[in-house]
Amino acid sequence: MSQNPNLSQPFMYQNAYSPNNGQPPTSLNPNPMNGPPSQNTQKFSPGNLGVSPARMPQPIPPQGMSPYTAQNYYASNYSRPPSSTEPPMKPLQNLVPPPGGTNLSQSASPKNLASPFPVEKQNSPYQNGPFSPFNNSNSEQNLNGADPSQVNGIGATNRLMQPNQNMPPLSPWAQPPRMPLTPGQPNQKLSGEGMPPPPTSVPPQSLAVDGKAVPTLSQVPSSSGLPMPFGNQATNSSSPQVTPGTSQPPSARSSRNPSPIASQRYDYMEGQFSNKPSPSNSSLNLPSIGASSNSGMPPPNQRNLSDSRQFTSPQASNLYPPNMPYPPNSTPGSLQPGPPPVGSQSTPVRPRYPQQVGYNQSASPYASLGQPNNMQPPPVSGYNSSPQLPPTSAFNSSPHLPPTSAYNSSPQPPPAPTCNSSQPPYSQQQQPPGPLYQGGLPEGPVGGVAGYDPQLHAKMAGLSVHSSFSRLWGNDSLNLLQDRNILPPVPIEAPKPVLTPERPNCSPDVFRCTLTKVPDTNSLLQKSRLPFGILIHPFRDAASLSVIQCNTIVRCRNCRTYINPFVTFVDQRRWKCNLCFRVNDLPEEFLYDPATRSYGDPARRPEIKNATIEFIAPSDYMLRPPQPAVYLFLLDVSHGAIETGYLENFCKVMLENLDELPGDSRMRIGFITYDGSIHFYNLGEGLNQPHMLVVSDIEDVFLPSPDNLLVNVHESKSLISDLLTDLPKRFASNGDINCCLGAALQAAYKLMSPVGGRVTVVLTTLPNYGPGALKNREDPNQRAGKDISNIGPANDFYKKLALDCSGQQIAVDLFLLCSQYVDIATVSCISKYSSGGVHYYPGYHRTVGRLQVNKFAGDLKRYLTRRIGFEAVMRVRCTRGLAIHTFHGNFFVRSTDLLSLPNVNPDTGYGMQIAIEENLTEYNSVCFQAAVLYTSSNGERRIRVHTLCLPVVSIVTDVLGGADQETIIGLVSKMAVDRSVTSSLSDARDALINVCVDVLGVYKATMSGQVAGALMSPYSLRLLPLFILALLKHMAFRTGVSTKLDERVYAMERMKALPLQYLMKFIYPTLYPVHALDDKNAIHQDDDVVIPQPSILQLSSEKIDRHGAYILDTLDVLYLYIGRAINDQFCTSVFNVPNFSAIPEDLESLPELATPESERLRTFVTWLQDQRPYHSPLKIIREDSRDRHIFMQYMLDDRTESLFSYYEFLQHIRQQISK
């Protein structure tokens, strides 16, 4: 297949952000880089971006020991936080404004970059966020004459750029030809106040990206067959990106301070400020990216990181690891006790971990013998359940769990089992095989007169002792074409990193990486063709959380990492950072063990025993006194809104949960309604009833009574109740069809600016009046086309307003209840850039849309009562040599790696892509640490810290064997959304297919033996093609099926913001057979409740039996599908009806009957609904129902008019790999 020219560009995004010395832009011009990839011929060269100094706070002497408390997290009350902004930037040293303005048609270079960071001016309403259009405006002026693609600025959205091939790719996708680089000046990082200068100086290096020098990397050939996919994911643009989806590699730069207290300065940590300005004359030359040890790096014996504690004196420089000799090299082919390796290496490689050694399998006389019939396949869940085999490592991700994976010392995988048939074994009644064995052995007795089964014989011939060891070591391979029943019958467990020594690691529900074994070089990452990134759910609900209250929060003085379980104690008074390797002093307070209330080993502290910890921060982490929790509700009362009947439902839920709003006695609330005008409500003290104030001049909105529009909830509760009771009656006959959403949001911004808070907007129709008015852009005839237009916003009005809100710590959440087009692509920007959320209920109506009515009521209750953090910021740090270059989610990137979150909630997740900038060959492991600084509703400033540690490997088969297929799908789906917006939907689909083609092609190239007609996959990636096919058939990316534009865009928005555990169910729903529930494998709770656990089925119509009943969990709705031939006993026991035809379809819940079948089914449905934050209503679908197509459209393994079946998709991948 020929290469698609439209995919010759990398999957890369650029946002140009330039505060323009604190002034707003004068006009907007289009960005030619937002065009199709084939039109983006502009080449970029790197800019010389300076780095601000690390301003360190003065150490706080111990003033007593506050007891450690392990608080129940659910019992915590949260209140409004103070501001958490950053200080103004110091002017960059090496940037000189050009003599004249430039535009994107000119070649960018470091010489024409203006200094984008003013020092004193703070009056710009756009200083804290992007403001240029989303590839739609026809007028954008470059700020300060600087190329917006080269400055730290705002692009309208993720922009498709030319690549810089010198950066490491983060995906398995093909590389375009390398472009020449323009040399620049060396990047300078100013030393922090009170810190010693570095011991060595690095000679100037050539710049490639963000002021960092990079070496030239060898070109990686593109995969043949399908067009080039996402491209070089590691390609960093020359400026930070600031859309919710993208950003640039981290640096120590801070940013403009949008806080109301403009004179107060932060350092570059989460909210911790410095009272003294940092010096600007000291610098630290950074080494060349990927350079050898003699180019600015210490010799290998200084860079070798030891995980064992050493009580020795530190080296002259505390910035590098102490001297440590290399361990003796081991030859994989040598005879040593243990499991057999798969192959041998000609060149000894120093292991990153205790290698598995043993006999050479190629020399074994038994290597080619098949497994005897009486030999049971080895268990693989846990990978070390066999007591005869030693564990592969002494380090676990959890102290309570056994090692879950191991490493093979040879890059050669085992020979694949023989496959002589192109069709897989098939049986309609066959259940999917369990995770213990993927060979697909038949469940029934062996057929034939003499008991001979050719399928069994073929499978047994491919088994050997070697394959058993390979499964234990995580390097087992599968032929995907042999069995379509690849989905395990139980939920998929996250792979657990294996480290040495054993320490607690972060929970995979909070922190997961696409690679549980990190490649030690960028070239190895490129060779694996796997994306490298992390997904994090930082504010996830937890039943309990260890909370630490202390006078001094122990952090690294160099990189500001929080002390964690993976640091090394040099002695009782010093510890070595696991990210930058600096040796730091321990405060006296840290020697106190709060559990035993005695002084002793600092390793017994809770910070060392928990990978997730929360600190109660001292006053250093706040700029102003804690503000009260403020909630403002904007309600659409136009004629269309009244017809839906939502207002009665909303007011009812509000009245029921008014006392459950998170906040303390200072909590305030307000209401605004809007149609063609804006209605304010005076709820001040002394009034007998609420007073409505109408503002008709929406072009210049003002606040008629600012002091009484936001009132204390407890003091004015009676007036609030009267207003909520009266609102549905007051607008029952409203005939105004206009909707001035933009003006209402402007009024909310003016009302909330002094204190910040949360704005909740309910919208039912397209905003068609006043500021921010929109027009219908959807073409119904193009809903099933291959390339969908208007996925991006129509203008930047809501984006600009969102950035203003983010600067004042205001988050905006949208509830869209509509049957017609409302342009979600445009209005969602108000939530996307202010860390808000979007909730969409298509077809909402009080009489004909009862499913959506019930879902809205349940979701609103959760929304009103869930815990919330105000004025939050989040930063993710990683080991030296790694860099974060792209962010995904709803937020605003305040600086290059600091995410501004005016509100943070437990239902939102984030994604980051990682680049390997320097070799990790001397490291045994790498670490990531995410810190969220927020203020709870009880006025406490808190810091929640998560730390994840992963091993480093040097063999491509180990990298592939340690891949996390679910995390890869989660990250790739976010990248595909960005590709759809910046390029086209067809490009994103082709790139998704190439994910499978490239990764499985790489694995095929590593195999020593080839099997004709087979599609081999590592066990860790066995479900990757299944999930990729589900993405291709998902509402967000499907073609050939009529899909409303709003529904498609909303699905994309959810992919960017959903946490991984919910995202996977959103991509590939779960199917359960429930017609024969029993207590086998059931969950037994403490209150004697038994929850059945039926097997999980693949989404194929061949699994649906007419005699059965099935529940399909799609995250949003639970569908109960009942076959036409269902047993009458089931109908009587569950529905209290005699037969199938009498089962009602309008039931909103199952009848409560005193039968075992009814109790089991109701318990299981309730358990499913409790597994997610929002409400999932139950909908009953009979086989003869007109809604049957709703259920059948989720059978993703089946063939459709426009897409392959799962087996045909596997054949297509095999053909592309063979080309």
TrEMBL record:
Composition bias type Gly residues, residue spans: 441-450
Keywords: Cytoplasm, Cytoplasmic vesicle, Endoplasmic reticulum, ER-Golgi transport, Golgi apparatus, Membrane, Metal-binding, Protein transport, Transport, Zinc
GO biological process, one term: COPII-coated vesicle cargo loading
Record domain Zinc finger Sec23/Sec24-type: where: 553-589
Location(s), subcellular: Cytoplasm, Cytosol; Cytoplasmic vesicle, COPII-coated vesicle membrane; Endoplasmic reticulum membrane; Golgi apparatus membrane
Ranges of compositional bias, category Low complexity: 130-139, 248-263, 274-288, 421-440
Residues in Sec23/Sec24 trunk domain copies: 626-864
Segments for region (Disordered): 1-450
Any one GO molecular-function label of the UniProt entry: SNARE binding
GO cellular component entries: COPII vesicle coat; cytosol; endoplasmic reticulum exit site; endoplasmic reticulum membrane; Golgi membrane
Name this polypeptide is given: Protein transport protein Sec24B like protein
Originating species: Argiope bruennichi (Wasp spider)
Lineage of origin: Eukaryota, Metazoa, Ecdysozoa, Arthropoda, Chelicerata
